[in-house]
Design brief:
By secondary structure, the protein is mainly alpha-helical. It has six helices and two strands, in the order H-H-E-H-H-E-H-H. The termini are far apart.
Length: 118
């Protein structure tokens, strides 16, 4: 994976822009990738959840972000936080099975993630 492709995946991971624009580029960049190149960290997940809380991304965008991040083989999760981060991605990507995406849900996740890195 070249630097431009890695940047495309990192932009999605950090949600640096509109998920509808970032997702296709990240999918294309990691299409043939079988190894993890970048990693979701609790701090990064907190940053994305804060974007929702500040109104920079919608609940739909957050759900789409979690679906795409969870589906790309080029994105892994940091060692020691696997269970927590996979659970976050699963719950955020399927709010119909868990909780509505709202300020309370995101704040609860931020607290859990913050406790995991403290």
């Amino acid at each position: 994976m070249n630097q431009q492709e890695v940047k495309a995946v990192l932009d999605l991971l950090d949600l640096n822009g509109n998920v509808d624009d970032l997702a296709p580029t990240a999918r294309s960049a990691s299409a043939e990738q079988i190894d993890e190149v970048v990693y979701l960290r609790p701090e990064g997940a907190i940053g994305v959840l804060n974007k929702f809380l500040s109104g920079r991304v919608s609940a739909r965008e957050l759900t789409e972000w979690a679906e795409v991040v969870h589906s790309l083989d080029a994105i892994g999760v940091t060692e020691g936080h696997e269970d927590l981060l996979i659970q976050l991605l699963f719950e955020i990507s399927t709010p119909e099975l868990f909780y509505e995406i709202n300020a309370e849900t995101c704040s609860r996740w931020i607290t859990r993630l913050d406790q995991a890195i403290s």
